[in-house]
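Extended Data, record Nucleoredoxin like 1
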Amino acid sequence: MVDLFLNRVLIENNWDQDELNTEREIMGILENRIVMLFFASAECEKCLEFVPVLNDFFKRLKDPAYIEYPKLLALIYISLDQSEEKQEKFLKELHKKVLFLAFEDPYRKELQTMFKVKDVPTIVVLRPDGSVLSPNAVRDICRFGCDCFQNWQESAELVERSFMLNEEFDNLNLRSATDPVRRLKYKTEDDKLNRGLFSTTISLCF
């Protein structure tokens, strides 16, 4: 996953718009995390309607005010806006811990092609190894909220070390009763994507 953004500049969506451009900085914020690539545009009405849902989802998984240990999750906005002004306008609606690529970076379009994104909003969910966990999680986020992350976490076999600091487990391989179903669901989506049979066209659940 980290390799996808090495030699690139990611910018934090805070007041200072701090740039992360060293290998150590990129690894520090993306390594061992599930990464959400949010493809959207300020000109898309559905994107604007989805933003409050996404912000609430992300805040409840990353904000210490809601959760003791922020989840191993990163959200990167891949702008498909037609101008930098529109990108900046859209960023003002997004959570301050969102990362984004500069408008002039052509890598935005490369990622759109790489993940076969044809419609927006689209959220491509990636495992820490960079493989696709979900080609578009918009509908799942709308329907299931934060429960999505548990599904992704178990499917990606991601271990949150912070959660385990003060606890001991006899068997670290224990899984929930629904785990086989989750793993089959996301494995099937991976297979479909690899065969080119999965369409990224998806409608919002509003």
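Summary. The chain is about 40% helix and 15% strand.
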